[in-house]
Amino acid sequence: MFTKTLEAAAFTALLPFAFGHAEPVRGGEIVARTPGGEFRGYGSTHRAPLEDVIWRFRPDGTVTSFSQLRRKYPSNGQFEEYSDAGTWRIEGDRLCVAFLSVHRDFSGCYAVDGRGGDHVRLGGPVQLEGTLGR
Fold first, then answer.
1. CA distances from 102 to 19, 63, 87, 110 (A)
2. What is the pLDDT of residues 59-83, one digit of tens each?
3. pLDDT band at 7 (very low <50, low <70, confident <90, very high)
4. CB neighbour list of residue 84: distance below 8 Å, 6 or more residues apart
5. What are the beta bridge partners of residue 77?
6. How far apart are CA 111 and CA 25, in angstroms?
7. Residue 84 and residue 102 in contact, taking contact as beta carbons nearer than 8 Å
8. Pairing, β 38-43 against β 77-91
9. Strands (E), 10-76
10. pTM of the entire structure?
11. At 13, is the pLDDT very low, low, confident or very high (cuts 50, 70, 90)?
């Protein structure tokens, strides 16, 4: 189930970025999208050139993170899954996250650029693209 969810999120997230212009998303709009919402997307990380991620933002300021990547082997691929927990906050016009273990490399503040609807690009410690909403 988790595998299919991440694959669908990555495919859905790729389509809107082929078109359109990005506009900065301001702090108030980030606040409206984040508590009780989630980010679903992908980016290049130290583990792989493409890692799918889901961040679930709770209203109490905590966040859970799930990610998946595919390792290629001679005859087939194998998925690796990671999860972590941490905190989130809004700092001005940036979304900030702090993870405790395997997703520490995602920790930091991200500028949020809107691409239309819920589609966003997060620019920070890792460049991510996907959807941010409830």
1. 33, 14, 14, 19
2. 999 999 999 987 666 556 678 899 9
3. low
4. 64, 65, 99, 100, 101, 102, 103, 104
5. 72
6. 8
7. yes
8. unpaired
9. 23-24, 38-43, 51-57, 62-72
10. 0.80
11. very low
pLDDT at 79: 83
Output phi, psi for 34, to 5 deg: -90, -55
Q: Give 128: exposed, middle or buried? Use CB within 10 Å, 0-12, 13-18, 19+.
A: buried
Q: Is 99 helix (H, G, I), strand (E, B) or coil?
A: strand
- Domain ranges in the chain are 2-133
Q: How many CB atoms lie within 10 A of CB 55?
A: 27
Query: Could you tell me the two tokens for 19?
Result: 């078109």
Tell me the fold of 2-133. Answer: Lipocalin (2.40.128)
pLDDT tens figures, 76-120: 667 889 999 999 999 999 999 999 999 999 999 999 999 888 999
Q: For residue 52, is pLDDT > 80? A: yes
β pairing state of 128-133 and 62-72: unpaired
CA distances for 45 relative to 20, 30, 37, 111, angstroms: 25, 24, 23, 18
